[in-house]
């Protein structure tokens, strides 16, 4: 599947709260395989932009893009003490003859910022030109908004070569951030006062995180303010040679000496349908899009003792779903109806494909027993409603916790709607009894 620029950017930022993802999704573990969720998934219009950072040992996992940010950083990590190695200095490349001092940084942090009613649009060529002006490299970008139409950020990345460019025969990756007002200094921290450089008359704080010995990579960063905007950029490059420092100075020079972004072209966006409502059980059953695929409709029996906890109706540009959650002291049932994605359709399995869904074939630890090419589909199989049988539901059961109870997860494609089920402490027969009348209707 070829991802659009929006899809690629959403991989960077995430469109829901990580805590909610953890509550919704099965988490793969080498020893215990799929863990039980801690509670219901709660889709929310307050989606979060997550800057995923890490210590130098994890630099290879960093995703790169360009962000124009309007958010106030919160929280400070605990920093180690003592000044690290001496900084390096990039040779001047601009007419002013400015050099860039690159301080050795000690900590890289991560953060996420809530966006109430998050929606987004890819920038057109005209908007790219207005926002990035004479920036010397081709870009793709997406503008992110809050539900009232206020611009929160623009996020983009260098679009030639799949985000990777050649500089002095070395590969580099670029991420740039521009923020109204506040420098995002919590993306990278120093435990000392770093040296500041003057580039085109702008005060720039630059640094570098070094990767581990096996990685051979470094992350170069720079922060500065000009024209009422705060800029932050990172470049991933080899930790040897001059490609990283030289490219960092080249980009900083272009940004400090170029024209300021014109964000006026991004005002007054068309606000798409957005919905995030907590519903009563009765209102959920009456939902015209998904209510007919909920268990317990019309007074049908639910497993004795399960108590209705919550229902959420959620709509944004990628999600159209109704999610319900029941529980008691030892059991949980998470039931979501939504529109299927391309990913879901790629997870379709037939009854004969037992090696792609039958958990009895794979002893724990699943990381060792499930063939690599099947691990994704075994984790998240999708059955067609016309194919589903009790035997297939039973095949999804596996022991969890103290192994005295069963858990199971799977999804059922019914026309243009998907039923996704997570059950903990229920038997396969109970789940089948909940499903059968819905699929026969």
Structure description:
- This protein is of the alpha+beta class.
- It folds into two domains: 46-266, no CATH class; 275-440, no CATH class.
- The chain has ten helices and 25 strands.
- It has helices at residues 5-13, 18-24, 125-132, 243-257, 281-285, 342-346, 366-369, 375-379, 390-395, 428-440, and strands at residues 46-51, 66-69, 88-90, 100-104, 107-108, 111-116, 119-122, 139-145, 151-158, 164-167, 170-180, 188-189, 197-199, 202-210, 217-226, 229-238, 275-278, 307-315, 320-327, 332-338, 348-349, 382-384, 398-400, 405-414, 417-424.
- The strands form four sheets. Strands 2, 3, 4, 7, 8, 9, 10, 11, 13, 14, 15 and 16 form a twelve-stranded mixed beta sheet that branches.
- The protein is elongated, with a radius of gyration of 25 Å.
- The relative contact order is 0.14.
Protein structure class: alpha+beta
- Secondary structure: helix percent: 10-25%
Average per-residue pLDDT, rounded, comes to 76
Radius of gyration: 25 Å
How many strands? 25
* Poorly predicted spans: 1-83
**Biggest pleated sheet:** 12 strands, mixed
Number of helices: 10
Number of domains: 2
Kindly summarize this structure in a few lines.
The protein has ten helices and 25 strands.
Topology (elements, then pairings):
Layout: H1 5-13, H2 18-24, E1 46-51, E2 66-69, E3 88-90, E4 100-104, E5 107-108, E6 111-116, E7 119-122, H3 125-132, E8 139-145, E9 151-158, E10 164-167, E11 170-180, E12 188-189, E13 197-199, E14 202-210, E15 217-226, E16 229-238, H4 243-257, E17 275-278, H5 281-285, E18 307-315, E19 320-327, E20 332-338, H6 342-346, E21 348-349, H7 366-369, H8 375-379, E22 382-384, H9 390-395, E23 398-400, E24 405-414, E25 417-424, H10 428-440
Parallel strand pairs: 2-11, 4-14, 21-22, 22-24
Antiparallel strand pairs: 1-6, 2-9, 3-4, 5-12, 7-8, 8-9, 10-11, 11-16, 13-14, 14-15, 15-16, 17-18, 18-19, 19-20, 20-25, 23-24, 24-25
């Amino acid at each position: 599947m070829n991802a659009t620029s929006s899809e690629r950017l959403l991989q960077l930022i995430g469109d829901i709260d990580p805590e909610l993802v953890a509550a919704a999704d099965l988490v793969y573990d080498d020893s215990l395989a799929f863990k039980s969720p801690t509670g219901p998934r709660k889709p929310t219009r307050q989606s979060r932009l997550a800057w995923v950072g890490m210590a130098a040992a994890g630099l290879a996992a960093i995703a790169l893009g360009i962000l124009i940010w309007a958010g106030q950083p919160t929280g400070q990590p605990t920093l180690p003490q003592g000044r690290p190695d001496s900084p390096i200095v990039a040779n001047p490349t601009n007419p002013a003859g400015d050099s860039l001092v690159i301080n050795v940084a000690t900590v890289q942090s991560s953060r996420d910022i809530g966006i109430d009613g998050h929606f987004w649009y890819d920038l057109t060529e005209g908007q790219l030109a207005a926002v990035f002006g004479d920036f010397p490299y081709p870009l793709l970008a997406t503008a992110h908004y809050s539900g009232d139409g206020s611009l929160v950020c623009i996020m983009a990345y260098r679009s030639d070569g799949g985000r990777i460019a050649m500089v002095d025969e070395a590969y580099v990756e670029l991420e740039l951030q521009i923020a109204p007002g506040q420098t995002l200094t919590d993306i990278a921290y120093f435990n000392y006062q770093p040296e500041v450089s003057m580039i085109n008359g702008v005060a720039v704080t630059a640094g570098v995180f070094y990767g581990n010995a096996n990685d051979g990579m470094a992350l170069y960063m720079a922060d500065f303010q000009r024209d009422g905007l705060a800029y932050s950029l990172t470049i991933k490059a080899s930790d040897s040679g001059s490609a990283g420092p030289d490219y960092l100075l080249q980009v900083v020079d272009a940004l400090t000496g170029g024209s300021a972004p014109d964000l006026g072209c991004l005002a007054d966006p068309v606000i798409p349908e957005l919905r995030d409502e907590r519903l009563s059980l009765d209102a959920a059953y009456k939902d015209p899009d998904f209510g007919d695929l909920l268990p317990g409709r019309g007074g049908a029996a639910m497993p004795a003792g399960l108590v209705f906890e919550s229902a959420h109706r959620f709509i944004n540009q990628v999600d159209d779903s109704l999610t319900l959650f029941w529980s008691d002291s030892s059991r949980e049932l998470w039931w979501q109806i939504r529109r299927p994605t391309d990913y879901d359709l790629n997870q379709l399995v037939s009854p004969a494909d037992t090696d792609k869904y039958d958990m009895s074939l794979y002893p724990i630890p699943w990381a060792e027993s499930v063939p690599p090419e099947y691990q994704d589909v075994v984790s998240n199989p999708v059955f067609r409603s016309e194919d589903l049988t009790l035997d297939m539901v039973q095949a999804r059961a596996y022991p969890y916790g103290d192994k005295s109870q069963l858990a199971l997860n799977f999804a059922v494609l019914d026309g243009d709607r998907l039923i996704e089920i997570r059950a903990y402490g229920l038997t396969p027969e109970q789940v089948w009894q909940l499903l059968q009348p819905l699929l026969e209707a």
